[in-house]
Give the backbone structure.
Amino acid sequence: MRTSMKFLLVPALAVAVLAGTGSAFADDDTLPTSTETTATAPPDQPEESDLTEGAPDDTAPAPSDAANHPANSPDRPGCDQGWRYYPTSKNKDYHRGVGASQANYNGTSRTAKSSFTSEVAGTVGIAVSGELSVKASVAVVEISGKFGVTVSASLTAKIGNNISVDTPAHKTTYASYGVYRLKSYGYSQYTYVDCGKGAKKNVTIYTPHRVGWAIWES
């Protein structure tokens, strides 16, 4: 049985192993024998069927019953009414590739070096399953503060990042450059001017976490 694991090199500003673009092929006589081979699986993808790319640029309208929550008297100041987002728990990173995946087959009987270079630039934003009633920037601040991580409303994977990895004999190495997004859970809730709370609207959010490669073999 093969052991499955996933590699992550981040970010584009980090020191990457420099190598040429494209495939790596060599004769058996010129390649040293590797004592280690690593089998990796394709990167995990979001599993929500109703996942929507993008997040609102503005907050949602107030609930229709907002008029039923009058302001308190001057002696009892009310609350600032509006939507809030409350993160509750986080999961793991899921990779979103930018451009097509690259691949290299090693047809030799020894381990070969496969080199890949990102050839497409692209920006990856937030993805949402459920009702996010606040701006993306608001959700990012709340998630970062709750879990002590650095996430963003969007991250850009750029052209020219290189990676060089070993490909075992008669195996294919696949490479995808893009953005890892942190999956987290929470809910949107409206606070009325009299400090009452509206219904909770559950949300699953994928927030851009880091730029990097996903590498796997078959």
User: Anything to note?
Assistant: Residues 7 and 99 are 19 Å apart (CA to CA). Confidence is low (pLDDT under 50) at residues 1-39.
